[in-house]
Specification:
Length: 366
């Protein structure tokens, strides 16, 4: 019988130590890059020196956290990464400029490009190779974006849901800053952008239920049930949010990241119905369902919000959970068929007109 110490000296043990060292190094690097974040005592979400959910998710014990990491690194099932190329429809600047108003394109994960009132808007732009503070370690993307940052037309605004690395990409923000007029963020995220050199006058920070108007587009920061942080010691120092996005004759909802909660009903009551709901559908697990919805909860959120069409996001780009890579889309397609939910699943880069959506193809299937 192999002793525990002998087992730990085996290749798996060495791999664990290497990965642990890498994770600790990433945490230290992220902490060193952390700006001094301001307090927000005027926000009803801010108390105890940090932002809070309306319903606080249960904290994990140290053992539970360690077991989760062990499972993520060493006990993953087969199929969490695709064994074939993700289909991507290449986009051009000329095609975007010629496209009709009220169009949307998905670049991957939760990155969307919206064309509203003749202007372009990006949600959670992530273009880097890895969703990580370093580009030599961390979740690696499965496909390239359908268009380069350099080829994008001028952007009226970037809408940010929170500061996690798979939603707030330092490299993309710096590359975009000269062609973006406005950055719309939850409280505290703007301080991160200013620390990176983004001009203060370009940034608008909102608390939950606050709104701002840019040209003909109205944006409302609405609640989400999640958390924030980019390093050791900065947990929940910035707010997280979902977004209502309204143009002339069009009403959209972007969930960012969220567990299922009663807030979806209130958002639907105040601002619904929505022509298209872009809802998180991926990177879920029963162990963290309070901060990332399971597919059945995504379907329920769609009903709560008063959605007309469901566009699942937060999938198809990064390996961030224990499920098979295509399970989010397979599960939500099954639920949509059972519950008569109009579902649209365009390939990355494929245009969709939000006032006359099409179903799209099941591109994730063999």
């Amino acid at each position: 019988m192999q002793t525990p110490s002998a087992s730990f000296r085996a290749p798996e043990g060495r791999r664990f130590l290497w990965l642990l060292k890498g994770a600790l190094m990433i945490g230290m690097i992220a902490s060193l890059l952390k700006p001094g974040l301001p307090e927000h005592p005027d926000s009803s979400q801010y108390h105890g020196g940090r932002f809070n959910n309306a319903v606080t998710p249960q904290a994990r014990s140290l053992w539970e956290g360690a077991r989760l990491w062990w499972d993520f690194l060493f006990a993953k099932p087969e199929g969490t990464v695709p064994d074939r190329a993700i289909p991507v429809q290449v986009m051009t600047r000329e095609g975007l400029i010629a496209a009709p108003d009220n169009s949307v394109w998905r670049f991957g994960h939760s990155t969307l490009l919206l064309k509203l009132q003749g202007t372009f808007w990006l949600t959670d732009p992530v273009f880097s190779e890895r969703a990580s503070p370093v580009q030599w370690f961390g979740p690696k993307r499965w496909h390239q974006p359908p268009i380069t940052l350099e080829a994008l037309p001028p952007i009226e605004g970037v809408i940010l849901s929170h500061d996690h690395y798979d939603h707030l990409d330092h490299g993309a923000i710096l590359a975009l800053q000269e062609k973006v007029d406005h950055f719309i963020t939850p409280l505290g995220v703007g301080a991160r952008l200013m620390a990176w050199g983004i001009a203060k006058e370009k940034i608008r920070e909102l608390d939950w239920w606050q709104q701002t108007r840019v040209g003909g587009v109205t944006l409302v920061a609405t609640p989400a049930q999640h958390f924030s942080g980019r390093g050791l010691g900065d947990g929940n120092q910035t707010l997280w949010a979902s977004w209502v996005i309204r143009g002339e004759g069009v009403n959209l909802f972007f969930s960012g990241d969220s567990g299922y909660f009663d807030g979806f009903k209130e958002i639907g009551r105040r601002y619904g119905p929505f022509d298209v709901t872009f809802l998180e559908t991926g990177a879920y697990d029963k162990r963290w369902e309070l901060v990332h919805m399971l597919p059945a909860q995504t379907a329920q959120a769609f009903h709560d919000l008063g959605g007309k069409w469901l566009y699942p996001v937060h999938n198809g780009t990064f390996d961030l959970a224990m499920h098979r890579w295509n399970d989010p889309l397979e599960q939500i397609a099954r639920l949509a068929a059972e519950q008569q939910i109009p579902l649209t699943t365009p390939v990355m880069g494929e245009p969709l007109e939000v006032l006359s959506p099409h179903e799209g193809s099941p591109w994730w299937r063999d």
